[in-house]
Amino acid sequence: MSDNNQVSYENMTERQKNRTIWGVITASSLGTLIEWYDFYIFGSLAVVLATKFFPSDNPTAAFLSTLATFAAGFVVRPFGALFFGRLGDIIGRKYTFLVTLLIMGFSTFLIGCIPSYETIGFLAPVLVLILRLLQGLALGGEYGGAATYVAEYAQPGRRGYWTSWIQTTATAGLFISLIVILVTKTTLSAEEFDGWGWRVPFWISILMVGVSYIIRRNMKESPLFAKAKSEGKTSKNPLKESFGNKFNFKFVLLALFGAAMGQGVIWYTGQFYAMSFLQKVMNVESAQVDSLMATALFLGTPFFVFFGWLSDKIGRKAVMMTGMLIAILAYRPIYDSMFKSVNLENKTVAANGISEKRTAKIHNEIATDSLVTFHKETLFTDGTLVKKDSLIHWSANGPVMKDGKAEEPKVTQTIKLADNTKWYLVLMVFIQVIFVTMVYGPIAAFLVEMFPVRIRYTSMSLPYHIGNGVFGGLLPAVATYLVTTGKEAGHTTWYLEGLWYPIGVAGVCLLIGLFYLKSKNNNIHD
């Protein structure tokens, strides 16, 4: 945007500014939404990817490896924030997040092209990890650019409202990823989806990225940055000014430990851990999990805008700290209730509700052996249906022996929920999404207002991506580990052990935020 364009923007009427910013939000949000879609497709398909890119002899270890690879993309986000944040403060917001969009799009597409572990061995997880790291670097540069870009167009008194539209893109990206997966699963047979259909959501991203690139290419630079650049007031060394200056670095740390850290774990608990908990701990059928998660996210997404708007009225701190406090107090009761809603001990088997069958096929690698599957279905009076498969490796001489004993069968169990239970779980997830919207809706405006224009992209991006990428991104793997060890140790409430991580991190963040964050919104750096 030229200096003349900057002047003309400042001289616009309120109505003209609103029309302009809607165009800015549309262009920014579409690209950011697609990047979130690309990033979360991996997490949404974690259960499937564990069987494709990792050894299948230990399903739990394969799933944990998938979550670790998923988390790796989050861990490198701060490095992307530093690299692209620096570029954004030197050459501009627009060109920087054009680059991040292309990196993310091509990385996602290529993940869908990698051969399975059975085909290329350990090269498969290595290639997935490399592409996942590229995704993380790209996202590290994307969010800060989009949030800063929109905020620098918004009127100071309405920053919370306008930037909250960017905040909807993370949940919308996850929602769309679930819908794409659900449609793909519905369109294809189970065998087709397991064989190649899981790749389709990755391939689709290249089309969406192409459309978004065309739209973003025609965007103009933000008025505040364009003005600073025309006046020669941009930073020559944003990294040094952001983190080498003790005064500014104090605000970077405050932004991280007083807001972004707690917001990150609440976001991932309410959306990703909830999905993982339903699938892996409660054994709910995958298609039903996708359906109920998509429903809860769809119903909760408008509240990002509501709480962003509310933060303009009563302050960012009040909204975010309240959301953190309620989440900390409510998580254990919510997850305890979710788990007990599918407790089979409290259900009655229907008359003639049990059916069993046995199938056998030749072992894939040992021609003289067989794989025998014992399939059992149990229907309960409330409509709940439990499917249990026990897979046994059978040799010509009987059961295959391991360490002097018959090899343990591989048992999988899925539960198809009754309608009333499904809607109850939708409500439980929806409540968690509300917590997410309270802490996440105002966070972009909060971070933007903490730092001056010349180093804003760099300074706000790092605490955001450490809070979300490190503290939030590690949550699924850490929580799954805590649940697994709790179960092995025989704890009566083993299924709640994973919650100690988000409760602890959010609790520390709440205390720091309450004592050290200002209650009044900050507009002085414009």
Automatic annotation (TrEMBL):
Domain of life: Bacteria
A GO CC annotation given for this chain: plasma membrane
Major location category of this protein: membrane
GO molecular function: transmembrane transporter activity
Organism: Chryseobacterium cheonjiense
Regions crossing the membrane: 21-42, 62-84, 96-117, 123-141, 162-184, 196-215, 251-271, 291-311, 318-335, 423-448, 460-479, 499-517
CDD domains: MFS_ShiA_like (cd17369)
UniProt xrefs under Gene3D superfamilies: MFS general substrate transporter like domains
Protein known as: MHS family MFS transporter
One matching Pfam family: Sugar_tr
Annotated keywords: Cell membrane, Membrane, Transmembrane, Transmembrane helix, Transport
Locations listed in the record: Cell membrane
Bilayer disposition of the protein: Multi-pass membrane protein
Domain Major facilitator superfamily (MFS) profile: 24-521
PANTHER family registered for this protein in UniProt: MAJOR FACILITATOR SUPERFAMILY TRANSPORTER, SHIKIMATE TRANSPORTER
